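Good morning,

Attaching, inline, the backbone tokens for the sequence recovery test we're adding to the shared suite. The designed sequence is right after.
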């Protein structure tokens, strides 16, 4: 079983809430704008992510998801 962490970059409005709440300081805002003109969040240190899902819960735009897949690699 593999856990897949995904940020839907084009849904993100760069509010920074997820960056602030991450207990492991995994997230940062990109320096490149998305299709809506916002600086989206991304996992700057994915190796530190503990998959706690606090960022998913906090995101007002439901842009972050953690899913399970039976295969070895994320889609
Ligand atoms: S799942 Fe938890 S540790 Fe991983 S980026 Fe989100 S808040 Fe941080
Ligand atoms: S909380 Fe959601 S909208 Fe805000 S920066 Fe994070 S992913 Fe983007």
């Amino acid at each position: 079983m593999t856990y897949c962490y995904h940020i839907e970059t084009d849904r993100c409005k760069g509010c920074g809430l997820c960056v602030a709440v991450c207990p492991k300081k995994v997230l940062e805002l990109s320096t490149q704008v998305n299709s809506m003109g916002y600086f989206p969040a991304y996992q700057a240190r994915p190796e530190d992510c503990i998959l706690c899902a606090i960022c998913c819960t906090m995101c007002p735009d439901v842009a972050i998801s953690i899913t399970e897949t039976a295969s070895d690699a994320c889609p």
